Here is the input.
Amino acid sequence: MPKLGMRTRIILLFIIVSIGGLVLLNNVFQSKHEIIHNSLGKMELSSRLRELKLHSREDSLKAESLMKDFNSTKAVLITSLGDSRIATSVVLFLIIVISSTIFIFVICRLSKPLKELKRATEQIRQGDFSVHLPETGIPEMKELKNSFNVMSRELETTQTRLLVAEKEMIWKDLSRILAHEIKNPLTPIQLVVQRLEERLEADCDTIKELLPESISIISQEVDNLQLLAQDFSNYAKVNQPNTEELSPALSIREIVKSYVQNYQINLDLSDTLTIRFDKTHFYQVITNILQNAIDASEPDKAIDIRLYKERSYAVLSIKDLGKGIESKDLPRIFEPYFSKKSKGTGLGLALVKRLCEANGAIIRVKSKPAEGSEFTLIMEDVEK
Here is the structure.
C-alpha cells in the first residue's frame, strides 16, 4: 500500500476534524429539535383558551393552568435556543482551535528543516561541500534531506577530482611554459660555450677576443632568466591586498617619471579623485599596462593617460597607437601564458587582471589592429 503524502494527510486531517465538528453540531441540533418540537406540541394546548368562556371558576382554573403550561414551554424554548447557540459557538471554537493547532504544528515541523536546508545550501554556495543534514522529520523531508546529502557528497567528490585534475593541468602547463621559456635563453648560452670550447681547442691564444662578447651574451640571457623567474613569482604571490586611500593622479605621476625621458606620454589627470587600493598592487597594474603599451608602440607614437570621474567611479584610461590586438585574441589576453610577443611569459596582463579583482576594480580593453589599444580601469571613487 503506497504511503500517503504530507499534503494528502493534512487534507484528510482537516476533513476529519470538519466532519467530526459537523456531526457533533448535528447531534446537538437533533436533540434540541426534539425538545423544541415537544414544546411546540404543548403550545398547541393554548388554543383551548379560545374555547373557554371564562364564566365559571372551573374555566378560570383551566385558563390559569394553560397559561402556566405556556410560560413553562416558552422558558424551555428560550433555554433550548440559548443552549443551541452556546453549543454551536463551542463546537466552532473547538474546530478553530484544533485546526489552528494542526496548522501551527505542521508549520513548525516544516519550518525547522527548511531553515536547516537554507543554511546548508548557503554553505554549499560558499564552497563547503562537507555539510551533512540529519535525516529526521516527516517522510517527505527525510527523502529531501537524503537527496541533499547524496548531492553534497557527490559535489564534494567532484570538487576533489576537479581540484586534482586542475592541479595536474596547471603543473603540465607550467612545465611546458617553463621548458619553452627557459629554452630560449639557454640556447644562446649553449652556443657561446660551444664556440669558446672550439676556440680553446683550436687556438687558445685568441680566446680573449671572444670573451667580452661571450660574457655580454651570457649576462644578458641570465638577466632574461631572472626576469622570467620574477614574472612567475609575481603571478604566484597575489596576496590579500592591504588597501588604503590614495590619490591615483599622484601615484601615476610618480610612476611615469622614469618613462617620460625616453617615451612620449601625455597626461590628463583629475587630482580630485581618491580610491581605495593596495599601493604596491596599483604600481604593478600601471607599470604592466604602461610597459605593454610601450612594447606595442613605435618610439615616436604618444601614449595617452587619462584619469577622470564618471558618476561615482574613478576611470583610468591608458591608450596607445601601436599595433593593436586581433579581435580573435581579445578574449584571451588576460589568460596566463598567452602572449603574441617574441619575448615574455604572457603573465603581465594576467597579473593585472588578478590584482584588479583582488582590489575590487574592473579592467576593460578596446583594440583594433593597426589602430592601437585602450585599457580602462574602473575604480570606486571614495569621495563620490
In short: The two ends are 68 Å apart (CA to CA).
